[in-house]
UniProtKB/TrEMBL annotation:
It comes from the Bacteria. This is Uncharacterized protein.
């Protein structure tokens, strides 16, 4: 994920980001390299933002 997409906020749904997280874990075989760990951390932050946006929108 680029810094530009982080600045704009999540443009993907929580479900889309969750699917990417799951795919990363499968691809990594359950053990993340340092680079994969960094990608995972960015994805989790994006997922959390998407969840918050869904909750705010629902309210």
């Amino acid at each position: 994920m680029s810094p530009e997409s982080e600045a704009r906020g999540s443009v993907r749904s929580a479900a889309e980001v969750n699917e990417q997280i799951r795919a990363l874990w499968v691809r990594a075989g359950g053990t993340l390299s340092p680079q994969e760990r960094a990608e995972y951390e960015l994805l989790v932050v994006e997922w959390a933002a998407a969840i918050r946006a869904d909750v705010i929108e629902a309210a």
